[in-house]
Amino acid sequence: MNLRISHVFAAILGSIVTLLLLYLYSTFMFKPIVPFSSTDTTIERPLLKYSLEELAKRQPQPGPIQLGEVVATHPNYTTYTFTFTTEGKKVSGLANIPNGEGKFPVIVQYRGYVDPSIYETGVGTRRSGEIFANNGYITLAPDFLNYAQSDKSNTNNIFEDRFLTYTTALDMLAAIPTFPQADPQRVGIWGHSNGGHIALTVLAITGKPYPTTLWAPVTKPFPFSVLFYTDESVDQGKFIRGELARFEGLYDVNDFTFPQYIDRISAPIQLHQGTADDAVPVAWSDQFAQQLKDANQNITYYRYPGADHNMAGAWDTVVQRDFEFFRQAL
């Protein structure tokens, strides 16, 4: 009798297991796959505030520009350190102020990438800034967060640190009216390498016609603009690629890159590119200049045979063309 009950119980249990397996198979094997949606509001996306659409709506939050110590004196201008704040954090930088009274036109300078361990205030902008200041322009070159005497960003996210260069650049421009010697109606932008990428991002976000000169700018879209240089990392970019994989799992990268918004750029642009540049391929500037021309944008493009990434071999010509460009535009 007990044996028969055991057989019956085993048969019933087997049927239950079979039905359960059939249910699970039909539920998960034939359930349609729902693609990832970057608009899913149930997922937290804290970096979305740095998309170009959101930055275009952002209200600048700068503190006033304050001059610090005198770095050097010259017959026609004086060089100072300066600070301002962006979202409550201090950013340091280098300023050149023409001697005399009056409201002077301003050139904001965004440098290229420099390793923070070797960076000093003014690296990448000092020489050109001196030429502009000697000819009657205020120059302001922010160090950006995490550099020189600036505050730390404390983000623990490499991409947020990158996006903070955009908010810093925007707040730098917004702070110009707080500076008594500056004429906020005459402001131009100078950008080199990744600083050119920052400048173009600012132009796409604001849509404002700041006259802009670019030296060997990084014009490729994010994240390729980052991935292209990962072989320079100690780990050949393994960490960056891992972080990017996580980023792309949450965000649409097209929302964070200026080439997707190139139609918003309204500024006159002068672009310089050396043919011996080993950091920014000549083809990038060729293609970008043609893209702007095809869009009927105001672009003047110069190529310099044999000049490198820092315009060595053509530096005097390049900076003189920039001076003439700003003289006419401002």
**Which strand order do you get reading across the main beta sheet?**
1-2-3-5-4-6-7-8-9
Top CATH class of the largest domain: Alpha Beta
Backbone shape = globular
Largest sheet: 9 strands, mixed
- List low-confidence stretches: 1-11, 19-36
Determine the N-to-C terminus distance.
104 Å
Oligomer: single chain
Q: What's the CATH topology label of the largest domain?
A: Rossmann fold
What number of structural domains do the residues give?
A: 2
Structural account:
With 330 residues, this protein is of the alpha/beta class. The protein has two domains: 1-33; 47-329, 3-Layer(aba) Sandwich (Rossmann fold). 35% of the residues lie in helices and 20% in strands. It has nine helices and nine strands. It has helices at residues 2-29, 52-57, 126-134, 158-175, 194-206, 224-227, 238-248, 282-294, 315-329, and strands at 66-73, 77-86, 89-98, 104-110, 138-142, 182-192, 212-215, 269-274, 299-304. Strands 1-2-3-5-4-6-7-8-9 form a nine-stranded mixed sheet, with helices on both faces. Helix 4 packs across helix 5. It starts with a helix and ends with a helix. Residues 1-11 and 19-36 have low confidence and may be disordered.
